[in-house]
Structures are given as C-alpha cells and as structure tokens.
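Lab notebook: predicted structure, single chain.

Context: the supervisor wants predicted structures on file for every construct in the current expression panel, including those that have not yet been purified. This is the next one on the list. No modifications to the sequence; it matches the entry in the shared construct table.
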Amino acid sequence: MPVSTTVSIILNTTDSDAAISFNYMENGVVEFMKKNCCWDHYLSVNNERVTEILLYSVAIIQNISRFFSVKSRCGDSVNWLIPLLSVTKGNIHIHSVMLLANMVDANNNAVLINAQGCINDIIHISNAAVPDMEHKGYHLWELLLAIGKLAKNDSIRKKLKKCGMLDLLMTLIQKNDDNIQALALNIMLTMILDDDILSFCHSSSVTKDLRPILESIKDTDDFMLSNNAKSALQIINN
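Prediction complete. Output recorded below exactly as produced.
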C-alpha cells in the first residue's frame, strides 16, 4: 500500500475516534509523523505527493492532540512546528497553527507570536465554516478552540482584532448552537480583557450590539454559556 494511502487512512480514522487515536499514539504514530514534518526534503520539494504526505502528517498529530497531550511524544520544544507555519500549500499552516495552539501553555505562550502570519487565513476558513459548521474538513469548533488558545497571547489578540475576529464572534454568539456560542463567548471574553480592544468595543457599535445578545442568553440552562455571558456583561458594563 502506498505511503500516502496509509497516511490518508490514519488521518481519516483519527479525525473523530479517540480510542483509535490513542492506539496509534501508543504505537509511535506521533513520533513517525513528526519525523515527516521535520524532514528538510519534504519542506523544500515542490511536489504534490510530498505536499500531501506532509499535510496528512501534521494533520494526524493535530487530530490526536485534540484528544490527548502529544507533548511527551514530540519533545518539550515546539520549535519544529515553526517552519510549517509558513507552508501555505495544502493549508499545511492551518493544521500547524491548530496543533501549535494545542501544544502550548502559559509557560511557553510567547512562541505563539510565530503564528501571526496564519491569523488572517484561520479567520477566513472559520467564516467559511459558519453555514455548515465545517469547511473543507475543518470543523468550526476545532478552529474556535484553537483561536481561543491563540488569543491568550497579547500580540495575537491584537492581530485577531485587526483581521476581523470581533465581527465573526458577533455572528457566532448569535448562532443557535450552545457549544459554538460558548466557544465564541470564551474568545470574546479573552479579547475584551485587553484594555485596547475593550476601548475599541466601547467606541464602536460592538458593545451596544453585544449587550442585548448577552442579556438574552445569560439565564440559559447551559452553565458555561450562562457564566461567560454574565462575565462579559460585567466587563462591558464597568
């Protein structure tokens, strides 16, 4: 069986199955796929099949990272991912930035600054995913989950605002889906904790438009959604 076919099968089965993802992880798949991602030959060759293998490799690690921590499998450093953030062919940079978001924490948050070049594209794909909850294999919830983690970085927050994230959030907060609403509100909370962004919201129509939406959902039965709405109201009303 060709390598690209094998990798494609692994990609499809790790997309939604945690048990299979765990089995692959325990059998060295993450380490093997990381080797593909780090091979200079794959990064330098302009070949459709090589691009496909590279895309599938980083996407498989990203899929598994949604269920389990892959840090111990990839090493302490995430520097090996940084070159992939510039590889736009096949949208490799989108999978790479989502994986990066899943791998960082408060201790290495500064590395997220390397993701600035991906922000416009991940927002574009998120906008395209709104009508059907996915776009070209990218689930809206996983895009928002990644953006929420990226927004923890001060510079990335400002880049998100510059690229139109607030407009997207206003659309998503009104979507009839508790999970998407909660994810969007979580990002909005992170955004408005930035004084500059909060000032912008007050000086534009964002706060005015956001307040009645938050009032309408603050008493919902969904605890996270209700709590996020109340927290956002408290911030914009101060």
